[in-house]
Amino acid sequence: MSYSMFTITHVGNSNLDTVAIEKQIAEYISTSHSNVTVMKDEYSSAQNDALTIIVYPDEENDNDVPTSTEAIFDKLNNLISDESCEWATKDTTCTITTEEEEEVSIDENEALELWRNIPDEERTLHLNVLPNPDGELIQPRHNTDSELTEVISSPTESQLKRDPTLLEFDNVERVDIANIDQISWDKPIIITNVLSDELQNSILTRKQLMIDKYGDTTVRTGNRETLIENGFTNSMPMSLDDAWDIRNHGSMQNDCGTIVFSPVKELTSDFISELKPLCDCFPNESKSDPIEKKFTLTIASEGFGIGMHKHNPAMFMLLTGRKKWYMSNSEDLEGVIDTHPGFYRDLSSHKCIQQPGEVLYVPNEWYHEIFNLDYTVGIQALPDQ
Q1: Domains, the chain
Q2: Which residues pair with 315 in a beta bridge?
Q3: pLDDT digits (tens, 9 = 90+) for 14-46
Q4: pTM of the model
């Protein structure tokens, strides 16, 4: 699917709500919200100084909807000039990042032969870093003597190149909490309207307030390689305040995403009290025989991903940000190794983008893989066995 991409710089609001901006842009250019994706640029010179806007074509092809990159560009410029656009300033500018490209077909065998005839260094000579098949940013062989000082694109942009369906494919059913009795619990399901408005605006959804109040709390941190069920081997304990700027910690600086993954029962009593109303909201699969759960607080950066794995039935409550999930029944994947790099592309039967306030249920022994589209805060619930 073709798309148009734009970069908007010098935005003026330090607490940007990307979902709200997506809705505003979609309304302004007369398209569906699902056709617009907004990403914060975590690597710009100032926090929240730049946004990446991706607009997908409207499937209904309404005559009132702009279809060309130039037409959408004009609409975006009109929007940031409008006084009602609260996140724009007089210095805000919009540029076209990529234009729709004409598709060129080539025989697979011919393409493979061309690739084999290209010297290794010429394949990557223009790149300082590139993603390996497992999604980690590495140095090409021609560049091993130079220091890795910058990332060529945001983690989400890199993942988008590997998985074109990253931001658009979602086939997991959503069920309102009021209809929970209708859930069979034999496949992934997203439960909505679990949290009250008050809980959806808890201190955990506001970064700086959470850091100001609980910054001295010791938490467990690590990367995708150290993550195990409900804890870490070789985890790096540190204060939440230090973990907030986790990319500046030497050994973790070049990881493809980092995470805070702390059992709730290990946190301070006041932090536990803050989390308890949220933990109490988790649905139970059985009213007659409620399952005791253990809860884990997770805080992860954009780009953090946990590779293909499985465990006991799990629920994940997302408080802020967005997560892409890839899932499949383990019975359908017999003989597939746990870390198959093509799982997210080829093998997952269920995919979804979890939104803030939603609870995702993953059935027992279902393989799943996760990718963070934004900075996220959430709570995981597993059976307490």
Answers
A1: 4-98 (3.30.70), 108-152 (no CATH), 174-383 (2.60.120.650)
A2: 361, 381
A3: 567 888 888 899 888 888 888 888 887 655 554
A4: 0.59
